[in-house]
Sequence to fold (530 residues):
Amino acid sequence: MSPEVLVNSLIICAVCWAIWRIVRMRQPEVSLRSVAILVLGDIGRSPRMMYHAESFASIGFETYLIGYAGTKPVPSLLSIPHVRFLYLSEPPRYISSWPFIVAAPRKVLHQVLSILNTLLVRIPHPPEFIIVQNPPSIPTLALVWFVARLRGSKVIIDWHNLGYSILALKLGDQHIFVRIAKWFESYFGRVAYAHLFVTRAMRDFLVREWDLQGIKVVLHDRPPARFHRASPSEAHELFLKLRSVLAIPELTSFLPPISPPYSTPFTSMPRSSLLSSEPRRPSDDTGKRLARGTAPMPALRSDRPALLVSSTSWTPDEDFGILLDAMVLYEKRARELSNAPSSDGLRTSLPKLLVIVTGKGPLRDEYMQRIGKLQSGEGGEDAWRYVRCVSLWLEAEDYPLLLGSADLGVSLHSSSSALDLPMKVVDMFGCGLPVCALGFACLDELVKDGVNGLVFHNAEQLAGQLEDLLSSHPHSHVIERLRSSLRHTYPRSPRSPASEEDADYWGTWAQNWDRVVRPLILRDVAETTY
Fold:
């Protein structure tokens, strides 16, 4: 251990001891009906934790949402009076110019002090519950463990994945840092008031391997109520809003011609039906005009391209190369079919395909540069005629509308632990969007192959699925059959106790949370295990 790391460790220990002494001397009475939700990341990019905050606030809990500022949180969360955002401070920028051996421990020290200051000082009364998102495990699990014992709070760990398994993607399973991280995560994560798991597989694994102590329940991800299949009017408004970002040169000649506000690449309305008494000035305000009855309802265009959406974090555990290779194969197959008449003399073809990739991440620029070269024909290959791919970052209110307007979704999530499920697929299902998903262990807890989506394992399989699903676009009976399975109805009361028989229950996030978490936080006895 370097002297710098040792000094910083001693400082942290001294500060923690001093805080312990001060708080113990001035410990107030525990304030019930309050919760602190800790996200060691961008709050706006942590949907599950934002949904937790909404659910707690909806039943009267004073809710403190702790994390870093960045992406705008979902609009519904901003209007709830019981929710308070407590943003963690970023390390000073000048630290980035220091040598790593000095900067790294300094950043850790800053992070530790910022979290402790928020949990011990900025929250005036001890919260009844502290919910911590895992991963990341270091240092949050240890800090929450410390604060809970100091303030008398109950810890709930929301297990999204395993932190050490993500680190192992970079360093390997046997690396000393991975082994230390695994020990840290198991030691500080073993005992809690309650453990929430995103899959049954994760619960079974951790109970077996780490002997977790406390209440143990599975809380599958489910979409909020605002996620739904978009109407043609909603799609029309969305693509009018996005027309500036879709007006890039490589798309203008690829997409059908448009005449805003009467048409978009996917929707249109007859100009002649507008009231003659109102001047026909180009305007984006079609929604208001529709509400006044001055324009007909938009309809989907018959010449629209197929729209595929893939949501990714552009990280190594999501192999975007599979989708890239599948697009290359689709382009090749579309060209072959356009030149080959079928046996009965009728020409078969595949539709043009627009792929929209949402999300931010470290690998985005690398892949989008490769796609740009393929689309333009650099390197000696012919330019693409049937496929275009663009990367967009959407506001929280627009993202569900894009999913609800698409024909097909693709999930590339492979899971570092093979124990979690892609939340992006949950969002897609909530919008009635069938999915082609990369297969891995426990995926069948969400995606039922051939029922609500299709499972692939390589680019060739994905390309074949795209051909099968889109060959009859825009009237694909296969897609409609998959979509019909996503129209779930359940006669059970949403507050009926959750049980293992309800593993495939599908409702909104609020309904699922009320069934699983609400009884847990309102119970009097904390020793029962599901």
Q: What stands out?
A: The radius of gyration is 26 Å. The chain has 18 helices and 15 strands.
